[in-house]
Amino acid sequence: MTATATVGLSDLRAFLHGLPGVDKVGVEGRAAALGTRSVKTGSKAKAIDLAIRMVDLTTLEGADTPGKVRALCAKGRRPDPADPGCPPVAAICVYPAMVPVAAAALAGSGVHLASVATAFPSGQAPLEVKLADTRAAVAAGADEVDMVISRGAFLAGDYTRVFDEIVAVREACGSAHLKVILETGELGTYDNVRRASWLAMLAGADFIKTSTGKVAVNATLPITLVMLEAVRDFRARHGRQVGVKPAGGIKTTKDAIKYLVLINETVGDDWLSPDWFRFGASSLLNDLLMQRTKLTTGHYSGPDYFTLD
Amino acid sequence: MPKSSKVAAPAQPAGTAESGASVRLSVRKTYKLYIGGKFPRSESGRTFVVDGDNVALASRKDARDAVVAARAAQPGWAGATAYNRGQVLYRVAEMVEARRAEFAALGVAAGELDAVIDRWVWYAGWADKIAQVTGGANPVAGPFFNISAPEPTGVVAVVAPPTLLGLVSVIAPAVVTGNTAVVLAADPQIAITLAEAFATSDVPGGVVNVLTGRYAETAPWLAAHADVNALDLTGVESAELAAELERAAAGTLKRVLRPPAGGADFTADPGLRPMTALLETKTVWHPKGF
């Protein structure tokens, strides 16, 4: 099956290069302007709880152990043990080898289990290896799969290969949700981010995700804005809603709230839900909890009162 | 304190105004906050006038930012060798010495300035000696080495007294042992001039942070802040406010230094108490006999 036959496009390359170019100055200016919004008191409390429910609590280290993953799962289920009103996170995100441990720790909690796959983070492996990686993760209990695209192939202009890989991984996922990591820090231009977003959505992605968190440039507001515009335009054209997940480098509540403002102003309420927007993060959660505690107790909290992870 | 004589504008060169040549305007100093090694304005944009100078009026968020800076600086400062901390503090004394004229213009008497520099050097010398005096090997009934060593408490919030001698007498004992400090200064010009001495010596940014303004407004936030480990109330004048701050500090089990009964005499020998009050003792049992 070729790419063009799947989506009924006469020429994938012509379509992607026919997308309007991104106005770099405009998109950065708009993201910066929206980043200055002040969200306070009651609205801030709601924003913090929403952001906690959107967190994909992530550990992707070579040093991950079953114990660390179990601790992370416990934290994801009950982020603030002192406050039963604190919502759980959206998902726990781990390497495939840790999926069985996490699946056991999360059973019955309603917290999703995401696994990176397809030779994360580089994606530089043969397709059969990537598919086996994906099938193993799903078989072990992951209900969300975070795949990486082959940036090498994308940058070389081999869009069909990237497309076909996403389609193949999509099939290997079965019922699991597929998040496609574009690794925007390696794509170089906003135009490429827009093209890669459309390519991933046309190939069947349920989510498009900015980054692996393993390169110098991770999620930024302007890049997320370009991706939000892409999912908005894609829904208008094809009638299917796709989620967005910025990942890497989002560390503070202030950052998270900027993203929520960006969603509200770009794609609206429909995306303001953990089903359609996620934060790939680890240290963000502690800051959200500290800010939440500040609002509930009236005094500033400190990192001594939350788990180190 | 007489301040009328402070930083007088230099006399205008004779004849320039009359002849229509350009008149030189002197550059006046804006007294800002000192947070994380930088001199930012108040986040709130507020200022107030003290003796004709515009001075930043610190807000709750400035206090929060100062605690973040102090917390970030604390492990590195405590992790530096005691000898190194002593050298850095000695350097501060050199910088204060070099600013004698500036402090004098702010109304600090020469005798007080001598005492200030001597006090600072005295504390600098304690950096690598306090552990010998307050720590040691303990005799125990068993095959163990038992060793006690003082450790810094962490981030200390200080309500400072108004004089320069009072100010250094609360800052130096806090930071010499490896704590970092958020100081609510009573006399803005003197405190920020001292901060300039910190900034031009080798004190890492964030080890001392100085907020100017009304401590009655900012101190309660620091007293209740869960990331502040100790509270020095030496400069609090109202017994009622001191009690209120101590109650707020109890919520997070902070160490609290009460204002000295009957007012502080900073000219007296301070003893070790100002340092030991902000230290915790760590005791290690180590088996011996192998």
From TrEMBL, chain A:
Gene3D superfamilies: Aldolase class I. GO terms for cellular component: cytoplasm. InterPro entries: Aldolase_TIM, DeoC, DeoC/FbaB/LacD_aldolase. It comes from the Bacteria. The keyword Ligase does not apply. GO terms for molecular function: deoxyribose-phosphate aldolase activity. Belongs to the DeoC/FbaB aldolase family. DeoC type 2 subfamily. This is Deoxyribose-phosphate aldolase. It catalyses: 2-deoxy-D-ribose 5-phosphate = D-glyceraldehyde 3-phosphate + acetaldehyde. Coiled coil: none annotated. Its EC number is 4.1.2.4. PANTHER family: DEOXYRIBOSE-PHOSPHATE ALDOLASE (PTHR10889:SF3). It comes from Actinoplanes siamensis. The keyword Cell inner membrane does not apply.
From TrEMBL, chain B:
It comes from the Bacteria. Residues 54-257 form the Aldehyde dehydrogenase domain. Pfam families: Aldedh. One of its GO terms (molecular function) is oxidoreductase activity. Keywords: Oxidoreductase. Gene3D superfamilies: Aldehyde Dehydrogenase, Chain A, domain 1. The keyword Transcription regulation does not apply. PANTHER family: ALDEHYDE DEHYDROGENASE-RELATED. This is Aldehyde dehydrogenase. It comes from Actinoplanes siamensis.
